[in-house]
Design goal:
The protein is an all-alpha fold. The chain has helices at residues 8-33, 50-77, 90-111. It starts with 7 loop residues before the first helix and ends with a helix.
């Protein structure tokens, strides 16, 4: 339907209906946007009080302290459980060094 084909009375009626719809939408928005006062909880912004933050921090520090204490107790109870670092004897190091030198010398000779 083209707006140019409508009569003046039809245009006036359409404008009046549109105004009614806008007024009803505005009223509906005001009804829905206001919070109901019938026992609704007040909105909170999610911020935590300083005292609560301190309690949480103290509890976390205590948990970490207990964890560290348990870890150090486990280490001190059984010191033999830690593996002894294996070291090579000087003779074994010299033998290995000689083998590697011979290997690389042969490899270099093969490339030439």
């Amino acid at each position: 339907m083209n707006l140019l084909d409508l009569t003046i009375t039809q245009l006036k009626r359409a404008a009046a209906i549109k105004e009614q719809i806008e007024a009803l939408n505005k009223e509906l928005r005001t009804i829905l946007s206001t919070p109901a006062t019938s026992g609704a909880a007040p909105k909170r912004n999610g911020a935590m009080r300083a005292s609560v933050k301190r309690k949480i921090a103290a509890a976390q520090k205590a948990r970490w302290a207990n964890l560290r204490r348990a870890k150090s107790a486990a280490l001190s109870v059984n010191p033999a459980a830690t593996a002894k670092k294996n070291t090579m004897s000087p003779a074994a190091k010299a033998k290995l060094s000689a083998k590697l030198k011979a290997y690389w010398a042969a490899k270099k000779a093969g490339k030439k």
